[in-house]
């Protein structure tokens, strides 16, 4: 069973530059004990034959074939644009000239 004393928590709070009351120090020391016990239980379960993972289920990417299909021409796409320039949509400038 791992635990942190009130003085350990006070030292951590001092290093983190967090002011804590006496009641908070005592409360956190018992909360840290619960957390450390939970971590210790997880470490007991994970053995050398268990591979570390970032997700509980295997991840795989779903790909589709990259097939060219008919789409709008440049003129058709720009036909509803309020402003266009050099076969492109013209939009108001939002950034400065820096």
UniProtKB/TrEMBL annotation:
Q: Which SUPFAM superfamilies match?
A: Glu-tRNAGln amidotransferase C subunit
Q: Which InterPro entries match?
A: Asp/Glu-ADT_sf_sub_c, GatC
- Pfam families in the cross-refs: GatC
Q: What residue spans carry the region label Disordered?
A: 76-98
Q: Which GO terms describe its biological process?
A: glutaminyl-tRNAGln biosynthesis via transamidation; regulation of translational fidelity
What's the protein name? Unannotated protein
